[in-house]
Design goal:
This protein has 16 helices and two strands. The chain is mainly α. The protein has a two-stranded antiparallel sheet with strand order 1-2.
Length: about 325
């Protein structure tokens, strides 16, 4: 049935006489048909559909653009971006229009932010493409991401929860794009700075995402030292009532630990072991043992490993 319906849906999607709302529904319908077909089935081929998609990404109607970007994101999630390389420049242009030029009607402006849903979708879709070729294109993307950081740094306590959520959604997708493309060190440093501010906010979802993204950033040697000043705040999250935040904090401490910080981190983890709930103790002991083995040249770390194992055996219920 999907194969039989696809030609008619495509006709509506590319029809210049159809209203934007009809073409919007056609894009979403095509995405639904793709999701209903087996993974190895191909309703549209990149050779024939990529030029149409690139043309659709030049539309001025924000609602239609959102549906088309959602469709492209679904295609990239399913088959990758191969064959759709020409769409990357179009996506960057959309982002530039939303962030720099702010070419958005009042209907799609949310708390002063130009269509945050479209911004987040574009940023997520760009993660499936490699770093753009050419110095000019890379500089344009760098400037756009820098502007996003500057705009999102305006998040304050006076902001409404809805506005903050929209800004956070854009910022976290921008950070994910920076990690995916392995962007410049300045953008990585801006990512750490922004995430560091979120480690002490009240909203648990924001802290969870900050810890998760900092764990990914900690794998980049160039920015590890910039994460180190936040270690005390990360340790404080080990005692959060939410177990998911405690686990993310533990993962981050484990990832950012090196020879210089091994003694301090292991000492803190052993101290935390005495108050940790039983559900986390097995993972906690395992991570301490791995760190102790990894940095076994340090005698103090060896001693901490013995203390850790002894404490665990005494605290574990029969």
């Amino acid at each position: 049935m999907a194969e039989a319906l696809t030609p008619d849906v495509l006709k509506l999607l590319q029809s210049g006489t159809s209203r934007p709302v009809v073409r919007k529904k056609a894009a979403l319908c095509l995405l639904r048909l793709m999701r209903k077909t087996p993974a190895d089935a191909q309703l549209v081929s990149a050779d024939t559909f990529a030029p149409l998609m690139a043309q659709l990404l030049e539309e001025r109607d924000v609602g239609l653009l959102l549906s088309c970007v959602t469709l492209l994101l679904g295609i990239c999630t399913r088959t990758g971006s191969a064959g759709y390389e020409q769409c990357q420049a179009k996506l960057m242009r959309i982002l530039e229009r939303l962030v720099h030029l702010r070419e958005v009607s009042a209907d799609y402006t949310y708390y002063g932010i130009g269509s945050p849903w479209l911004q987040a979708k574009v940023l997520r879709t760009l993660q499936y493409f490699p770093l753009p070729e050419g110095t000019l294109a890379q500089r344009q993307l760098h400037d756009t991401l820098g502007t996003i950081f500057n705009l999102c740094s305006e998040i304050s306590k006076s902001s409404t929860i809805n506005k903050s959520n929209a800004q956070h959604a854009i910022l976290f997708e921008a950070i994910s794009l920076i990690l995916a493309l392995d962007c410049s060190r300045s953008l990585l440093a801006s990512s750490v700075s922004s995430l560091g501010r979120f480690l002490s906010v009240k909203e648990p979802n924001i802290r969870y995402l900050a810890l998760e993204n900092l764990t990914r950033l900690a794998l980049v040697p160039e920015v590890l030292e910039s994460i180190r000043p936040h270690q005390a705040t990360i340790l404080a999250n080990l005692r959060d009532p939410d177990v998911s935040i405690r686990r993310r904090a533990l993962d981050l401490l484990f990832t950012m630990c090196d020879g210089d910080a091994a003694v301090e981190v292991v000492e803190e983890l052993v101290t935390y072991l005495t108050v940790a709930d039983f559900g986390m103790r097995e993972e906690l002991v395992l991570k301490i043992a791995i760190l102790a083995e990894k940095f076994a040249a340090n005698v103090e770390v060896r001693q901490h490993r013995a203390v850790c194992c002894l404490a665990y055996s005494l605290q574990t219920p029969a």
